[in-house]
Amino acid sequence: MNLVKNLKSLIVLLFAVLVAGNSWSADGATLTTDGTLTFTVRTLSNNATYSPRNVLAIWIKDAQGNFIISRKVMAANRKQHLVKWVASSSNNVVNAITGATLSNHQTHTISWDCRDLNGNLVPDGNYEIWVEFTERNSNSGGAVGPSTKVVFTKGTEVTSPVIADESFFKNMELVYTPLNVGISDDIKSLISFVAFPNPFNTNLNVSFDLPESDFVNVSVYDLSGKRMVELVNQDLPRGANSFSWDAKMGNGQKLTSGVYSIRIVYQGKMFMHKVVFSN
Question: Whole-prediction pTM value?
Answer without folding.
Answer: 0.83
